[in-house]
Design a protein that fits this description.
Helix content: 25-40%
CATH topology: PH-domain like
Distance between the termini: 61 Å
Strand order of the largest sheet: 4-3-2-1-7-6-5
Largest sheet: 7 strands, antiparallel
CATH architecture: Roll
Number of domains: 1
CATH superfamily: Pleckstrin-homology domain (PH domain)/Phosphotyrosine-binding domain (PTB)
Structural class: alpha+beta
Oligomer: single chain
Number of strands: 7
């Protein structure tokens, strides 16, 4: 606590980022950098047979990371609901659509998931980074090695630091309970239903 009685943060942004990187590297030793962070997200999955959305048991902080081996880029969600963290590859068959604060994506396994972002600004920043990664990857021949310096990928390191979390990966229970609940409203379900069929039509056409 400072002399004026106000609580001072325990960690600055750089220290927090390094701490989070250390935690992520325990999960995946090939992670070399955190490109961007979304402090709180919740996931939904689409059941193709039932044509309906349901909430997944995945909620927590999302990290877009760069790895020093293939797959080069992934996003990882440090799950607060159980011990199973979510990991998705951003290269290959990954595709997405966005309508803030929601992001819909299809992964390489053809699973369709929806992400709700507590912070709309983070939703936009993550979607922008996804676009940059996918566009940069499209310029590289499929079997060529990813250049390690002065490349399209190198530019991805210069992401805004504003997206870095203000706290470590393991926030207090009070901080988690203070997050607003996810909106399970008809507008949310309708948006993703329409977007799923749009994405599905584009994929199979």
């Amino acid at each position: 606590m400072s002399q004026n009685g106000k609580l001072m943060p325990n960690l600055d942004q750089q220290s927090t980022k390094l701490l989070n990187l250390t935690v992520l590297q325990r999960i995946d030793p090939f992670v070399e950098e955190i490109l961007i962070t979304a402090a709180h997200v919740t996931f939904y999955e689409f059941n193709i047979e039932l044509s309906q959305w349901s909430r997944k048991d995945v909620e927590g902080s999302l990290f877009v990371v760069k790895r020093n081996t293939q797959p080069r880029f992934q996003f990882i969600v440090m799950n607060r609901r159980n011990t199973d963290n979510l990991v998705e590859n951003l290269l290959g068959d990954f595709e997405f659509e966005i309508q803030v604060p929601y992001l819909l994506y299809r992964n390489g396994a053809q699973e369709v998931n929806g992400i709700w972002f507590y912070n709309s600004r983070e939703c936009e920043e993550v979607a922008n980074l996804f676009s940059r990664i996918l566009n940069a990857y499209a310029k590289v021949p499929p079997r060529s090695k990813v250049p390690s310096t002065k490349s399209e990928f190198e530019e991805l390191e210069a992401v805004p630091t504003m997206a870095v979390m203000d706290g470590p990966l393991e926030p207090s229970s009070a901080a988690v309970s203070g997050v607003a609940d996810v909106p399970d409203d008809p507008a949310f379900i309708n948006f993703f239903s329409v977007r799923y069929y749009s994405l599905n039509h584009l994929y199979y056409s």
